[in-house]
Design goal:
- The protein has five helices and two strands.
- The chain has 252 residues and is mostly helical.
- The protein has a domain at 15-188: Substrate Binding Domain Of Dnak, Chain:A, Domain 2 (Up-down Bundle).
- A two-stranded antiparallel ribbon has the order 1-2.
- Helix 2 (37-56) runs antiparallel to helix 3, helix 3 (62-91) runs antiparallel to helix 5 (124-188) and helix 4 (102-117) packs antiparallel against helix 5 (124-188).
- The protein is elongated.
Amino acid sequence: MPDNCGCPMENPLDNKFLKERYDSELARKDKLSDSLSLPVSVLIVLGGLVVAMARGFSYADYWLSVAFLGLVVLTGVCFLVALWYLAYAYHGNYEYERLPSLNDLYAALSRYQTYYLDYPNGSDEEKDQLAIDDFDANLRRRIIQAADRNAASNNDRQRCLHLAIVWLFAVLFGTLLSAVPYGIDQALAPVKVPVVHIDNLEGRKDLVMPETPTQSAPAPRPQAEAKPATPKPEFPSNIVFRNDQPQTTPKK
């Protein structure tokens, strides 16, 4: 459709634009997969801190223990929800599409050319152009179909990743709140003084009986080495490998 100046307008959805959109969605898919490693690491660290505080809590004061356990339970629930969203963002039921292989595309173009050669009217060049136009239109349709499905899957994955990060902040907030009663408990808990057992308070030394020296047996007299009559056997040679094939080593 020409514009006001009479020049033909360029197609805004040309092959270059569609191909760039298709490639960007595939690159976005890989970027989403790579961005999951940091939230998983942070979640593991926070979970380890909560477990360490739960094991180190003395549970001496009743109300302090109730407050601490309540915060730990809430933090654990947030931890499980965040872990579920991260797992679903990484390995959910997401469908992606890729374009057919180059071999399949070339075979399809050949079939279109064979199909249009049977047309009764038109020259061979016109028939070949019809085959190329039909092939190009179907290829554009396949690119749009793949890009749209990949974009929908990426949007779902990004939504799960966003929810996982929200619940991850909830885990962080719960961990900080749990640290308050934990710190109070550690401050109020009695310090365990190590008990040292001291024996022999009078300072006497135990008498140690000296060991009686033992007389060493006289060394046996060296005897003449007896050699067998038969010759000494040779030690087997090492096996040399070259290109994973054993080679024969000549005897020296």
